[in-house]
Amino acid sequence: MNLNATLFAQFVVFFILAVFTMKFVWPPLMNALDERAKKIADGLAAAERGKLEMAAAEKRVQAELASAHDAGQKRIGDAEKRAQAIIEEAKRTASEEAARIVAAAHADAQQQVSQARDALRAQVATLAVQGAEQILKREINPAIHADLLNQLKTEL
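Structure tokens predicted for ATP synthase subunit b:
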């Protein structure tokens, strides 16, 4: 066996294997690697876009939360103002009702005082007539002396 011929045969077999590998094995392998690299690059780009969208969504959420908080605070302020207005209205209504009740009680008291004065005048007139009867020792006719008795009532 000749070392040169063996070396030359191994070189030819290696060259045929290299050409076969470059022609039939290498392109699908490189395509698969390129597709994989493209998928990885697309995935990384999508992840980066997702991060950016997440940051933008977080900003929108923070803005919405801030506006909702402001709207809630405004509603609370409006509710407090409305509650104060209702309280003031209730106080005013209660004071008006109290004033009306006091005025009605005052008018009722005045009416009762007036009725008591009228009753007292009538009793005083009756007593005056009885006293005059006793003094004069004769009976005074109330029908005849009605004008005199009315004048006496008005003077009392």
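The two ends are 171 Å apart (CA to CA).
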